[in-house]
Amino acid sequence: MPDETxxxxxxxxxxxxxxxxxxxxxxMPARGAPQTIGLRIMPHHINYQDTAHGGVISTFAxxxxxxxxxxxxxxxxxxxxxxxxxxxxxxxxxxxxxEARVQIDRLxxxxxxxxxxxxxxxxxxxxxxxxxxxxxx
Length: 137
Known about the structure:
Thiol Ester Dehydrase, Chain A, 7-stranded antiparallel beta sheet
């Protein structure tokens, strides 16, 4: 299983806790756009069919979409997931490098609307959308 991280990605410094169990996650900064989040499918992500568990993909979607809202402004926002929709289109296998590519569709006064896709190379693994509530300080 490959364990190298593609160029430009650095390990995410998310707060400890639940996200430590689903990752590790990696960030590629983008100027003027939400960051791309990466995830290598590892043995602890695999289900009984030897593919990434659907919960891993949905957690990855939530991490990527919410991070886009979190990183959209300074001071940073603290988003809470209101809705999350994930459409599973293909399976990810052990060793696959996944990238979540996100866009913010609308950032209102208290709510952010996001969408994106999870890919493995050129293969579309999932599409996703989410609504996030936040409060500005």
